[in-house]
Amino acid sequence: TLLRLKIIPVVNENDTVAVEEIKFGDNDTLSALVAGLVDADLLVILSDIKGVYSEDPRRNPKAKLIRKVSYISEEMEETAQSTSVEGRIGGMQTKIKAAKIATRSGIP
To answer: A Gene Ontology MF term for this entry (predicted)?
Structure first.
């Protein structure tokens, strides 16, 4: 398999062609679950945002970047819920959910 060859898998459900019956939902959660299944050493989630912020940086330019997240607080989850962008699946909310799934599997 690709894993035995040390090839890094890129997990992406193609949102534009996925049919409702087999659609997973969002790539962030899917990638965290796959990382757990393959006993990954690390999960990297790519985004157009530089990281986790104290607030939505698109709405508040003074939002502070949180450089290291060692615990996902309720406040962080609430902030993530308010950052969804219309027309997109996921957003920061699913990235936080994926991080929780990954850390429960021992994946940083």
So the answer is: ATP binding
